């Protein structure tokens, strides 16, 4: 195309044709500008979406404190959640959310990492052909199905096992464990596969056993990736609403133990949002819960970034 | 490699086209609603999940007769219905409660259309061993003073309260009739009839409350003060726990909406569909209730 | 205990863990399929739903799910491809890139119910598009974008450096190298990521309840003009998907066989996702062979 362009410009004949050609951007450069433009545009769209959502949730979430003049500290430390009576203490939900998320991640991680090692190091063929499709399939099970299986199977099981009504943190943990397992496993598999092949070969060539190679070389090298996988799993657990809501009992009271009904931020949000009027205290209070969800995920992200940085430093990768 | 770029551009063009199509259709549908020929237009009803099945069924019968009308019925909860109709986003706001009862809603701006009556009653798990309660006992259970079924003549079984979500219409109706201002003990909360139904059926000692249409033989529906939860008892107000199903409009409804409302309250619908689906016809009511809960004989 | 014994013990432990995981997974699948499949029939798959009880077939919902998935992918794949290329190729290692990455991770960890409510307030209420396929597709795009972008970036970065250098040394632009050399090599990984996110999109309910809506008006499957109100392709009609249908039947369904209906719908959903996964895998391999011209 630039050939025809230059041919169409007779003025160029006055100046040194070659200088002009050399100064003009080449086809590759212009292609690169185009590429840059497209990719900048795309990232710009994402940034715009994130920014508008952040603004949206923040502006709605802080209305509780700016318009309804609720004391921030009372909101975080209060234990009485009755928005219709003007009492909004969010601590029970904060504790509930943290409890189920961490419990689910702690239970799921060994299973996920074990499975991932099996899929990449012990039986890569079986892993690729058989385990991976099944695990990917599980990601597609809607959370509401998990919730009802939880209600039909896990809750009665827990009732017989530990007593009580069966609703509570332990049931929610179990359901979430199954739900985050595919997420953590697939991402861990990805990060294990991303470990350069020669790391493994070097270790095996030095006479290390498979377990020594896995535990001291591959897992170490993949640690940032695995941590990201866990965080992603925790994010899913944290944000999961429909399934948890079915099995946790959804009671806005401080959880006394693992088998008493409790509530999470998301379960309270889904239960309540349809019955509130936009702009009133009950509605604003729920958006404040959403804001807490947001801040917590920011915190998690900062944490994983810190860990990843440390991992990089100690490995100087 | 031009394939990739072409593909990307094609996809981008297609999505633009789709958005374009979207705009085009929206403008045609709005121009349709202003024409005066056969009844046409767009009616959106949003809100109460308790009214949703009836509204949806009546809506599909209505559109079968008026094929030019585009009618959609959505759930979302009474609060959503009221705030959406107030903001003018939808034509009908479905609600289980009077707009006056909901803080943040300017009831004077809205017009109430009562389209059905719903009776609600306490249900317990079959293992509780209770079939009748006094109103005071029911209140005692939900305020947390009575914690074991043997205190009200049932088995030695801990009571597990399943409440409805705070602010839900069903809960407001129940608390108005039973608790009368006392506040409920903190307990499990569920936001749908289906979930309550399942949980009460499977959890020993569970108690909750449901609209009559959700009573099943897996649950034990309770009598209160020896009055059985039947439609006839609601019509005479012998059974106290009931509420209207409202469809609110903002100002004067447009033609299609008005036609749908008069269809909903017509004898046809009230005597067949409403009853078939477990609601109570507004024409059968021998009493009426206002927003403050005052009962007057018709 | 010496290294060999440790190795043996570790292998045993991992095998036990995998057996447990496989056991759980198969219990889940078997539970869904066994309780659901007996109730699946041709009329169930193609029939229309009775809006009163929720009983009846799921034909419209099934179509809606696929249509919504296609629309979502049409919007989100180009955007996340561009964004993934930006992160893999153009982004410098500085605070701005860190900020962008954090933003993407935050977006991915937002609960889908919050995304749904955001979509509801923005598209349904503010832009007055109403409960519609397009509102739902955009809401799904929001939470699909971070997953896809991340996956594409990782797949691109995993391509060996020398391939990139080879392209550049031939005088190709960065963009052309990326599109012509790196992307085809990374394609199988990208396709897997798309499949994974498609699975999540397919099963998503919370984000759609308030955007695509919970009603499935009967559509005229003979009318394929996207401008007509009754056409299944009209992006402005409300569209209840299969996952939302399962949720609705479970929570508000009045049909006395609600449990069987939702089990059957769940089984159909799982099978659809399975077929989808297999199809995409075949497609991914095929693409890989075609674009890289390898045997």
TrEMBL record, chain A:
Topology of the protein relative to the lipid bilayer: Multi-pass membrane protein
Chief location bin: membrane
Coiled-coil regions listed in the entry: none
The UniProt record lists the keyword Cell membrane: yes
Listed GO biological process terms: phosphate ion transport
Membrane-spanning intervals of the chain: 37-57, 90-113, 134-155, 167-189, 217-238, 285-308
Domain of life: Bacteria
One example GO MF annotation: phosphate transmembrane transporter activity
Family, as annotated: Belongs to the binding-protein-dependent transport system permease family. CysTW subfamily.
Protein name per the record: Phosphate transport system permease protein
Lineage: Bacteria, Bacillati, Bacillota, Bacilli, Lactobacillales
UniProtKB/TrEMBL annotation, chain B:
InterPro entries linked to this entry: PBP_domain, Phos-bd, Phosphate_ABC_transporter
Subcellular location: Cell membrane
Gene Ontology MF term list: phosphate ion binding
Chief location: membrane
Cellular component GO terms held in the UniProt record: plasma membrane
Pfam families: PBP_like_2
Keyword line: Cell membrane, Lipoprotein, Membrane, Palmitate, Phosphate transport, Signal, Transport
Residue span(s) of domain PBP: 35-267
Membrane topology: Lipid-anchor
Secretion signal span: 1-24
GO BP terms, alphabetized: phosphate ion transport
Subunit structure: The complex is composed of two ATP-binding proteins (PstB), two transmembrane proteins (PstC and PstA) and a solute-binding protein (PstS).
Similarity-based family: Belongs to the PstS family.
Function recorded in the entry: Part of the ABC transporter complex PstSACB involved in phosphate import.
Protein name: Phosphate-binding protein
Organism: Levilactobacillus namurensis DSM 19117
Taxonomic placement: Bacteria, Bacillati, Bacillota, Bacilli, Lactobacillales
UniProtKB/TrEMBL annotation, chain C:
Protein's UniProt keywords contain Membrane: yes
InterPro entries given in the database record: MetI-like, MetI-like_sf, Phosphate_PstA
Domain ABC transmembrane type-1: from-to ranges: 62-280
Listed GO MF terms: phosphate transmembrane transporter activity
Residue ranges of the TM segments: 12-34, 66-87, 99-123, 129-148, 179-198, 258-280
GO biological process, one term: phosphate ion transmembrane transport
Compartment(s) of residence: Cell membrane
Domain of life: Bacteria
Keywords of the record: Cell membrane, Membrane, Transmembrane, Transmembrane helix, Transport
CDD domains: TM_PBP2
Record bears the keyword Membrane: yes
Cellular component annotations (GO), alphabetically ordered: plasma membrane
Membrane topology: Multi-pass membrane protein
Matching PANTHER family: ABC TRANSPORTER PERMEASE PROTEIN YQGI-RELATED, PHOSPHATE TRANSPORT SYSTEM PERMEASE PROTEIN PSTA-RELATED
Homology family: Belongs to the binding-protein-dependent transport system permease family. CysTW subfamily.
Protein name from the UniProt record: Phosphate transport system permease protein PstA
